C-alpha cells in the first residue's frame, strides 16, 4: 500500500500517468477523470485519460475532451500507455471487469494503481484507495483527494472545477439524491467559486438532446412503459429494431429509466434494452429497496442501492419474464 507521503513524493517529479474509468462512461466517470487530468497536467505530469469504450455526445464539451483516448478505437496506443505508466488512477469503478479488456492490461502493468471510487465491494487490485460509499460521486472524492489529502487546493482552477461539478451534478441527480448532503453542497459552492458555471454545465448536459432522443423518449413513455401496480414496478423495454428506427446513439437512452420511476407509487423501475451482444438492464429504486441486489443476484451486475445495472445472456423476452418472475420474491419489500 502507498502512503499519502509516498504519493506526494511521487507527484513531486513528472510521472507517466494513465487515468481510466468504467466502460460506457457517464458524467461522473468523465467528470472525475477529466477533473483529475486537469489537475495533474498543471503539476507537469504526462497524463492520458483512457476510456474502455465511447461515451455520450453530451459529455464531449468537457475541457480536454480531445485528449481522451478510447481503448476500442486505439488499442495499441492505449496498451502501450498502460504498460509504460508509473501510476494508474482508477476512477468511478472498483473491479477490473468494469473496464473490459483494459482490465487485464491494468492488472499486468507495473504501475502503482490508485483507486478513487464510491461503489460497494472493491476488488483488491490497488496500491492506494480513496474510497467511500458515502460519497455521492467519484468526482466528490477527487475533490477531497486534491484539496484535503494532497492539500493542493491552490491548484484548483476553472477546468478542474467544471469537470468535478459535472460529475457531482450527474451522479447526485442534480443534487436531489439523499447522497447530496450538506458537504456536497459546500463542495459545489467551492467549485462555483473556482469558476464552474453551474447553469451552463446543466444546460450542456441536460438541454442538449438530439431530436431523435426526444422522439424516442416519447415513444418509450407512450408505447413502451408498462406499469405493474401490484408490485409497484415500472418497466420500459426496447428492441434493437427500435434503436435502429430512432437512430439511437451512445447516451440517447441515458436517464429514461428515471421517468419510469417518477410515476406515483412506483418503487422500482427497469429499463431493459436489447443490445447487439446481450440484454442490458438499468434499475432504479426509491428508499431502502436494493436494486443492486437484484442486479447482482440475477443479472451479473451490481451498483448502488438505488441505481444499479447488469446484463442477461437470455433474449429480451426471456429477460423480461425472468425480471417479472423475480418480483414475487421482493413483493413484501416492494409493498412496504
Ligand atoms: P446505469 O443504469 O446507469 O447503466 O448504471 C447505474 C449504476 O449501476 C452504475 O453507476 C454502476 O454503479 C452500476 N452498474 C451498471 N451496470 C453494471 C454492471 O454491469 N456491473 C456492475 N457491477 N455495476 C453496474
Ligand atoms: Mn459515480
How would you sum up this structure, described in words?
With 336 residues, this protein is α/β, with parallel strands linked by helices. The protein folds into two domains: 4-206, inorganic pyrophosphatase (n-terminal core) (Alpha-Beta Complex); 211-335, Roll (Diaminopimelate Epimerase, Chain A, domain 1). Helices cover 41% and strands 18% of the residues. It has a six-stranded parallel β-sheet with strand order 3-2-1-4-5-6, with helices on both faces. Strands 7-8-9-10-12-11 form a six-stranded mixed β-sheet. A hairpin with a 3-residue loop joins β11 (302-303) and β12. α2 (27-42) runs parallel beside α5, α5 crosses α6 and α6 crosses α8. The chain is globular. The mean pLDDT is 97.
Lay out the secondary structure.
Blueprint: H1 4-10, E1 16-21, H2 27-42, E2 46-51, E3 69-70, H3 75-84, E4 87-91, H4 102-108, E5 112-117, E6 128-131, H5 138-149, H6 158-171, H7 182-193, H8 198-206, H9 211-224, E7 225-228, E8 233-238, H10 240-245, H11 256-261, E9 268-274, E10 279-285, H12 291-298, E11 302-303, E12 307-312, H13 316-326, H14 331-335
Parallel strand pairs: 1-2, 1-4, 2-3, 4-5, 5-6, 8-9
Antiparallel strand pairs: 7-8, 9-10, 10-12, 11-12
Q: How would you describe the oligomerization state of the chains in this entry?
A: single chain
Q: Which class best fits the helix and strand makeup?
A: alpha/beta
Compounds present?
guanosine-5'-monophosphate, manganese (II) ion
Q: Could you report the average pLDDT, rounded to the nearest whole number?
A: 97
- Sequence of secondary-structure elements: HEHEEHEHEEHHHHHEEHHEEHEEHH
Q: State the CATH superfamily name of the largest domain.
A: inorganic pyrophosphatase (n-terminal core)
Distance between the termini: 44 Å
* Overall structural domain count: 2
**Helicity, in percent?**
40-55%
Helical segment count: 14
Total strand count, please?
12
Query: Which strand order do you get reading across the main beta sheet?
Result: 3-2-1-4-5-6
Parts with pLDDT < 50 across at least 5 consecutive residues: none
Tell me, what's the shape? globular
Tell me what portion of residues adopts beta-strand conformation. 15-25%
| Rg over CA atoms | 20 Å
Query: What fold name goes in the CATH topology slot of the largest domain?
Result: inorganic pyrophosphatase (n-terminal core)
Strand count, sense and barrel status of the largest sheet are: 6 strands, parallel
Q: What is the C-level CATH assignment of the largest domain?
A: Alpha Beta
Amino acid at each position: 500500500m502507498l502512503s499519502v507521503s509516498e504519493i506526494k513524493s511521487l507527484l513531486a517529479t513528472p510521472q507517466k500517468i494513465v487515468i481510466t474509468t468504467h466502460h460506457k462512461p457517464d458524467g461522473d466517470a468523465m467528470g472525475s477523470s477529466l477533473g483529475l487530468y486537469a489537475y495533474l497536467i498543471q503539476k507537469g505530469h504526462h497524463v492520458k485519460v483512457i476510456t474502455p469504450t465511447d461515451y455520450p455526445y453530451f459529455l464531449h464539451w468537457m475541457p480536454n475532451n480531445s485528449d481522451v483516448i478510447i481503448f476500442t478505437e486505439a488499442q495499441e496506443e492505449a496498451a502501450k500507455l498502460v504498460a509504460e505508466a508509473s501510476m494508474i488512477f482508477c476512477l468511478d469503478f472498483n473491479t477490473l471487469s468494469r473496464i473490459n479488456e483494459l482490465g487485464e492490461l491494468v492488472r499486468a502493468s507495473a504501475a502503482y494503481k490508485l483507486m478513487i471510487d464510491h461503489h460497494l465491494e472493491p476488488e483488491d487490485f490497488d496500491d492506494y484507495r480513496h474510497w467511500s460509499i458515502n460519497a455521492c460521486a467519484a468526482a466528490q472524492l477527487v475533490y477531497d483527494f486534491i484539496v484535503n489529502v494532497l492539500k493542493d487546493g491552490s491548484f484548483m482552477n476553472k477546468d478542474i472545477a467544471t469537470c468535478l461539478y459535472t460529475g457531482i451534478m450527474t451522479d447526485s441527480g442534480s443534487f436531489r439524491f439523499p447522497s447530496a448532503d450538506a458537504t456536497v453542497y459546500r463542495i459545489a459552492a467551492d467549485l462555483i467559486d473556482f469558476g464552474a458555471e453551474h447553469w451552463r454545465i446543466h444546460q450542456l448536459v441536460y438541454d442538449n438532446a438530439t431530436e431523435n432522443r426526444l422522439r424516442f423518449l416519447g415513444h418509450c413513455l407512450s408505447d413502451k412503459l408498462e406499469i405493474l401496480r401490484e408490485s409497484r414496478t415500472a418497466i420500459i423495454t426496447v428492441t434493437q429494431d427500435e434503436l435502429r428506427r430512432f437512430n439511437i446513439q451512445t447516451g440517447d437512452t441515458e436517464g429514461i429509466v428515471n421517468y419510469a420511476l417518477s410515476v406515483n407509487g412506483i418503487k422500482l423501475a427497469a429499463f431493459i434494452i436489447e443490445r447487439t451482444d446481450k440484454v442490458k438492464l438499468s434499475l432504479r429504486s426509491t428508499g431502502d429497496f436494493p436494486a443492486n441486489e437484484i442486479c447482482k443476484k440475477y443479472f451479473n451486475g451490481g451498483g448502488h442501492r438505488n441505481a444499479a445495472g447488469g446484463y442477461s445472456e437470455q433474449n429480451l423476452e426471456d429477460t423480461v419474464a425472468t425480471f417479472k418472475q423475480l418480483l414475487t420474491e421482493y413483493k413484501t419489500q416492494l409493498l412496504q
